[in-house]
Amino acid sequence: MKWGRLCCLCLLIGCLLACHSGSNHSEETGEENDLPQIIDRGELVVLTVNGSTSYFNYRGEPMGFQYELAQQFAASLGVKLKLKVVKNTEELVRQLLNGEGDLIAYNLPVTNALKDSVIYCGEANITHQVVVQRKGKDALKNVTQLVGKEVYVQPGKYQERLINLDKELGGGIQIHTIAADSISAEELISWVAEGKIDYTVSTDELAKINRTYYPNLNIGLAISFDQRASWAVRKSSPLLAQAADKWHKENINSPEFKASAKRYFELNKHVPHGTILSLKDGRISHFDQLFRTYAKEIGWDWRLLASLAYVESNFDPKAVSWAGAKGLMQLMPATARSFGVPAGKEQDPEESVKAAVKYIAALQQSFGKVKDKDEQVKFVLAAYNAGVGHVTDAMALSEKYGRSSTVWEHHVAHYMLLKSNEEFYQDPVCKNGYFRGTETYNFVKRVIALADDYRKKIK
User: Fold this and answer.
1) Which class is 129-222 in CATH?
2) pTM, entire model
3) Of 68, 123, 186, 312, which residue is the catalytic one?
4) Cα–Cα dist 142/165, whole Å
5) Active-site residue 312, yes or no?
6) pLDDT(191) > 90
7) Average pLDDT for 260-284
8) Domain Solute-binding protein family 3/N-terminal spans what residues (predicted)?
9) Alpha-carbon gap, residue 189 to 186, rounded angstroms
10) CATH architecture, range 3-126+227-265
11) By C-alpha distance, which of 432, 451, 439 is closest to 413?
């Protein structure tokens, strides 16, 4: 959270408290809305914000660490979860105090102003800012070594912290500010991993997530004080707060809790890839005949379908991704069901390819306005990786800001890369919220490049 926004949040709390005169919406209407009432109605209304750890949509399915924990907590109470995704933390607090939600499932910063109006509950999460750099013997070990180094950051809290640190050190940090409308914070991290730049700054939580994509990152150098954050409920819901505290304490070491934490903060998100089977014999994989047979149904070169399978699963029909996608073509469970994969057959190679081709055909219809077939392939691949909604969001952004909505590179792809920036995923034309667009951008490039290589080497 930016410091300016934190100040605004405190002012908002003050205004809300003044308006409520020490009461909340439930008290004004004479209705209690604590744990017994929640259990009676059988529903827990949870407020959260789009983000890399809280909640996002991936390949058409809801994901996010806080979302999964909220699901587990609701299940422990024996009630259904109703999720309300709001625009920002100010709106989280406003809706909570107005009785529009029961619980904030988000790392809400612990501040003195908020302590007067909410009960913090659940696990206390400690965050701080870190230098993101590559591993190696030259990695910085203390902040004084930043003097003379070039650090690339977006304007806002990271830039402000670096400026203050530079003053504390007597100057010398070369701070390069990158406009948020050109590069996302996650793309800057990818630049570090790829060696394009040496240093950037992020929260340790965001850095941990990105390290699962780029194992060569070093994120151990902290440059700010710790900030505490946790879930929150209204002051009038002490029993709900107690239940959240008890659940976190008893379940922090449970298999479900550990599995969720591992999914987002530990599992390597990249599939290891080997070489193609045999150039001499003109074979790419053991499944070439499947690709040759089914690619005809969508008008694709079979080598393009093979390249998609390779990038998705490394031709491993038993592969299961961090997000739960399965099989040769890495279909999410709901997608597999929708396109005819029988239960228990997700890892059957032919069933996987058949369903994937049906899905691709549906995506081709979704992007019918993209008339150029080579361009359409890129949109289809992007949607296969991210889900249709995030691609249509990027198309809407591209059109809004004066670029083409039917050209991928430098147009729609540019805004796909920016979908992890709050300024863009909160734009009114975006309907699907946060998304890590760097992965989709790289995915499309890789599949296309690999297919071109296959065409050159295998006739």
Assistant:
1) alpha beta
2) 0.85
3) 312
4) 12
5) yes
6) yes
7) 77
8) 43-268
9) 5
10) 3-Layer(aba) Sandwich (3.40)
11) 439
